[in-house]
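Issue 218. Parser rejects a valid record. Input:
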Amino acid sequence: MTVPSGAVTPLPVRIDVRGVSLNGDLSLPADAHGLVIFAHGSGSSRHSSRNRAVAIALQRARLGTLLLDLLTDEEERIDMTTAELRFDIPLLGDRVVAAVDWAAHHPTTAPLPIGLFGASTGAAAALIGAAEHPDSVRAVVSRGGRPDLAERALSRVKAPTLLIVGGNDHVVIELNRQAFAQLGAPKELQIVPGATHLFEERGALEEVSRLAADWFVRYLA
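Output the parser choked on:
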């Protein structure tokens, strides 16, 4: 496997939660001053090219990353047919909570302050994780997320939260504005001009990476 310049070779990890094991890729720069756990959503996984691109940018900013599958292989196969588990926000949130607990107690990651990065429905799961671990989670970033699906957890989030939305993703912008109004923590809503939901436009994902790295460095360093 070729590792891009500035990236860190990932270490496979498994996290046990409520009778299932979740696969993850843990990447820790030697001088890491924080750990960002990625919560994928809407049929995505730790192999998401977009989230991996953001993870590399964070590693270059001296932040460790944990890209985690929130569904097991069997659940992924079911979800490919039914698309039901990707919207099971309580299930996804519970697994992010377990990942934060794992990171807070694992010998290699326990000393590091924790941030959460959520995409699509994973953003709601990340916010639930932040609400359940107010003493452990120091920052949250949502990319094209559905923070509105976190519902009652929003008012309990204490971690500074950044919501990033594409300028042409009009429905999701409105949903993010609704969630933004319910957040009581320090917060920002950043709209990337000309970008659609997946940030596939030239330079859009690079802007997401820059915004996320700046946010996490500010609150985790």
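Fixed in the parser; the record now loads. The radius of gyration is 16 Å.
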